[in-house]
Design brief:
The complex is a heterotrimer. Chain A has twelve helices and no strands. Chain A is mostly helical. Chain A folds into two domains: 21-115 and 219-240, no CATH class; 134-204, no CATH class. Chain A is flat, with a radius of gyration of 24 Å. In chain A, 43% of the residues are buried. By secondary structure, chain B is an all-alpha fold. The longest helix of chain B has 35 residues, at 136-170. Chain B starts with 7 loop residues before the first helix and ends with a helix. By secondary structure, chain C is α/β, with parallel strands linked by helices. Helices cover 32% and strands 24% of the residues of chain C. Chain C has helices at 42-50, 52-55, 77-83, 100-109, 115-128, 144-156, 174-189, 201-205, 280-288, 322-327, 335-344, 360-372, 391-405, 418-421, 441-446, 448-453, 464-468; strands at 2-12, 18-27, 31-35, 60-67, 70-71, 84-87, 162-166, 193-197, 210-214, 242-251, 254-264, 269-274, 294-299, 306-309, 379-383, 410-414, 426-431, 434-440. Chain C is globular. Classes of the chains: A mainly alpha, B mainly alpha, C alpha/beta.
Chain lengths: 244, 181, 472
């Protein structure tokens, strides 16, 4: 039933520890991703130049294998779009659409594959997102492992009781959906109980105290400023480049 | 204690519902003999969340949180941004539909809200194709087949959500929630 | 000087259940052990003292609780958390951080301390509770004992003058419970006022200077060993034993069970004990076929048919009433058996009650009923049936197990509670290398070397009578 065990799944977080971007402030990375995603609006020559720079940057950041995997996942969509655009509109459009899709599909991986959820929470608090919202986001990551193992146990317990013995096959979708109630109800109940325990535990440790002072803080280093100014410079250069 | 829009318990509860969606998406093959059925559980949880935390925005918050988680976990074929937006929009779509339809325990309303939510997710994919400059007709054609699945599984998800809510009510879940702020 | 004053305290839950009235005071530096049976209101009163009631509960509280002269009604929750720290029953459900360090830091941040002070307190807590080597670990990967120590470290690092604990020992094995008791004793001696709400009386009552307060008379219920086998330990009824031969179970790259062989007599109650992580639950899952394994598990040469009662009853409850829950998807239910189950499990008056509003103990009994109504051919397996149950409930449970066994069926239960295990006919001790020993309860309890090999010990308060298996 399960593809992986509880921690195998949270392991899918796969943060690239070896990437130089790992040490970069999450705010810098977020700004970088947002700016890079605007590149989809560029015309062909500019997007081609950007594409080369983008891949050079990925290589420097040791994120190229991940980006290539992402492209591989898209291979059929890209191939079909490329051929159809070529035949129906023009080869130029085929190339530009392909490049744009590759950029837009991969650009935010620069952020998500080099940032931990805890760092994201710190960045959210800096962006004036209330602490309680950022904290609950952190809890949701923590909950994935538990919920995964609870799901497995619910499935086992219900299967043992014959909960899924209704007719199967495409003719009985409604019957089958009804069977799923035996999964969703315990799952929701357990989630609520865990949420309540966490609420009590948080309040027992002074949650929502107006005196709260964070132990960890985000700090823009020289590398951050270098990346931000470098990226801004390149972006302005591309925008101001007059095409012949 | 000053009244907040979402109480801490409600926030944590919504966070856990978001985690439920992500777990269902990654790790579970429901014992259902239908292909492409992951949206069923997805929409069901969103519908359930909108009743368990009966405030506009609850489903959207579940969608957004699950979107952030899914982006971190590398789900989806079209990249992190697409994943983040499509999960979020599924919540927003269901939320907007339920503002109009009101009762998520009603099978029809819930199924319709499920279709809305799932369609919103579909729209994100379509808009992505458009932004990339792909011809609108072709994108529409390519996604037409998927559209039928989105509507069917959105409706079934909404239906499962309503069934779950009714079962929860009968099993005393809302009585359990009653004492918790 | 009284640090805590509880005056005419009552609390009514919105569903109608109520607790109290009660009044008591606790002096500065005192160690108060509050006992009482399940459902007598221990957890509710603990929450009233910590301020969680009324701040995050909707019920109606009357009377007052004063901590250091400040009323819990008029003091804000975050301020109360600085006056009275609270440690909960289930440590895995209260972990908020991604690492052990973070778990402690979260509470310290809320005190408004500067970084240097937080670092200092963090190191002190990690050192005091022996968590130094675990500082980078995910709290959810720790054992139950380590988690409870971490919960205690996270709260005591905030240095509250009062520490309230709600059933802190109920989820722990003997060694972990003994170690935690030692820490509580140290805290008390260092001047912290400790109030422990705990029905496992024996650990705390043995500490010097502890004042015991009973919330109800049922708290004094004592275990008595009831031999299950009026039955057939030697299989005279013709029932065949469960034979487990060389089974191996892997979880990913970790081998949980390795070449384990065991024969379990039918017509008896067998308790499987062992420290956390020795594979008790995995073994039960393998017997039922839920867990893939190498090797063989057979009864009379065939695949066995056992019913499994899960540790957490909430995993399987979803119907509208107790009746529909028990009869769910049972073909041609035996209504006589149904009526009998309701009677012996004390569920008769709840037949039409929504299961989710039952107490935890009642839900466990309901889960057992859902298994028994299916008449599993060879018997039942119970995974940690005593978690969170008081002495009276454990006693009832063991009587029921004995009754099932007396029909020639096999009853196997896993437990970390040696009190409960001492009431079984046979004990199987699992250690790091598989089955450490297996045999009659009195023989196993009497042999200290077995327990030493399994990394456990039998506390002195499991009385000589119980060790020798004398029926009360």
């Amino acid at each position: 039933m399960m593809k992986q065990d509880a921690y195998g799944m949270t392991g899918a977080l796969s943060i690239s520890e070896s990437s130089p971007l790992r040490k970069v402030d999450p705010r810098t990375k977020l700004a970088l991703c947002l700016a890079a995603s605007l590149a989809v609006m560029l015309p062909l020559q500019k997007v081609a130049v950007f594409f080369v720079l983008y891949f050079m940057f990925l290589a420097w950041a040791r994120l190229l294998p991940g980006a290539l995997r992402q492209i591989w996942k898209l291979k059929w969509i890209l191939a079909v779009l490329f051929v159809v655009d070529w035949l129906v509109v023009s080869p130029e459009l085929a190339v530009v659409v392909t490049l744009r899709l590759v950029i837009v599909a991969g650009v935010f991986a620069m952020f998500f594959s080099t940032t931990t959820p805890s760092e994201l929470c710190l960045a959210l608090v800096w962006m004036r997102v209330p602490y309680r919202y950022a904290f609950s986001l952190g809890l949701s990551f923590q909950a994935v492992g538990h919920i995964n193992s609870e799901w497995r146990k619910i499935l086992e317990a219900q299967k043992a009781r014959g909960a899924f013995s209704a007719p199967s096959g495409w003719r009985y979708p409604v019957e089958q959906v009804k069977n799923l109630v035996s999964l969703t109800v315990p799952a929701v109940v357990l989630a609520a109980k865990r949420a309540w325990s966490m609420t009590e535990a948080a309040y027992a440790r002074g949650f929502e105290s107006p005196n709260r002072r964070p132990y960890k803080a985000l700090l823009m280093s020289r590398a951050d400023w270098f990346i931000v100014s470098g990226a801004a410079f390149i972006f302005i250069l591309i925008l101001s480049w007059r095409l012949p | 204690m000053k009244e907040k829009y979402f109480s801490t318990f409600q926030l944590f509860l919504l966070a856990f519902f978001a985690a439920l969606i992500v777990v269902a998406k990654i790790a579970l093959h429901l014992p259902l003999q239908l292909s492409g059925h992951s949206g069923i559980f997805w929409m069901a949880i969103i519908i359930v969340s909108s009743r368990v935390v009966p405030k506009p925005g609850a489903a959207s918050l579940v969608g957004l949180t699950s979107g952030i988680m899914a982006a971190f976990l590398g789900l989806g074929d079209l990249g992190a941004l697409n994943t983040l937006l499509s999960y979020s929009m599924a919540g927003v779509g269901a939320d907007l539909a339920l503002i109009l339809l009101r009762d998520p325990e009603n099978y029809f309303c819930a199924a319709l809200a499920g279709v809305f939510g799932h369609m919103a997710k579909f729209m994100v994919k379509w808009i992505f194709g458009m932004i990339a400059g792909a011809p609108a007709g072709f994108v529409a054609l390519g996604l037409a087949k998927a559209l039928a699945g989105y509507i069917l599984f959105g409706a079934l998800g909404g239906f499962l959500g309503a069934l779950t809510l009714r079962a929860l009510r009968r099993a005393g879940f809302f009585t359990y929630l009653m004492e918790k702020k | 000087m009284a640090v805590i004053q509880v005056n005419d305290l009552t609390y009514a839950y919105p569903q109608g259940r109520s607790v109290g009235p009660c009044s008591f005071t606790v002096e500065k530096g005192e160690f108060l052990h509050v006992t009482g049976s399940s459902g007598c209101g221990k957890s509710t009163i603990a929450r009233c003292i910590s301020g969680l009631i009324p701040h995050i509960y909707h019920g109606k509280m009357t009377g007052e609780v004063l901590i250091n002269g400040r009323s819990t009604l008029s003091t804000r929750m975050w301020e109360l958390s600085e006056l009275a720290g609270f440690v909960f029953q289930n440590p895995s459900m209260q972990m908020l951080g991604n690492t052990v360090e973070e778990e402690i830091i979260i509470g310290l941040e809320n005190l408004g301390l500067d970084r240097a002070e937080i670092s200092g307190r963090l190191e002190e807590s990690l050192g005091r509770f022996g968590l130094d080597s675990l500082r980078g670990r995910d709290p959810q990967t720790l054992s139950g004992g380590e988690q409870q120590k971490l919960a205690l470290a996270a709260i005591t690092s905030r240095r509250p003058p009062v520490l309230v604990l709600d059933e802190p020992l109920s989820m722990l094995d003997v060694s972990a419970a003994t170690e935690l008791t030692r820490y509580l004793s140290l805290l008390s001696r260092s001047g912290t006022t400790v109030i422990a709400f705990e029905h496992r009386a024996d650990y705390l009552s043995s500490l010097p200077g502890v004042r015991v307060m009973a919330l109800d008379s049922a708290a004094s219920v004592k275990f008595s060993r009831r031999r299950a086998s009026a039955s057939c330990p030697d299989c005279k009824c013709g029932a065949k034993p469960l034979v487990i031969s060389n089974i191996c179970v892997n979880a990913g790259k970790t081998r949980i069970l390795e070449n384990m062989s065991l024969t379990v007599q039918s017509g008896s109650v067998t308790a499987i004990v062992g420290r956390n992580g020795t594979g008790k639950t995995t073994l039960l899952r393998a017997i039922t076929g839920l867990q893939p394994f190498e090797g063989s598990v057979t009864v009379n040469g065939k695949k066995p048919d056992f019913g499994l009662v899960c540790q957490n009853a909430d995993l399987q409850i979803f119907n509208a009433a107790v009746r529909s829950e028990i009869l769910y998807r049972v073909n041609n239910p035996d209504m006589k058996l149904y009526a009998r189950l309701l009677e012996i499990l004390g569920l008769g008056r709840y037949e039409n009650t929504p299961p989710l509003i039952l107490s935890e103990g009642e839900k466990k009994r309901l889960a057992l009923a859902t298994v028994l109504i299916r008449k599993p051919e060879h018997g039942v397996l119970l995974d940690e049936p005593s978690l969170g149950q008081d002495a009276a409930h454990k006693h009832t449970l063991m009587e029921l197990c004995a009754e099932i066994a007396s029909t020639g069926k096999t009853v196997i239960l896993t437990t970390h509670d040696l009190h409960l295990a001492s009431m079984a006919d046979r004990i199987v001790v699992l250690g790091p290398d598989g089955v450490t020993a297996s045999g009659r309860t009195e023989d196993i309890l009497a042999d200290d070397s077995i327990w030493a090999r399994a990394g456990m010990f039998v506390p002195g308060w499991i009385t000589e009578d119980e060790r020798k298996g004398i029926t009360a």
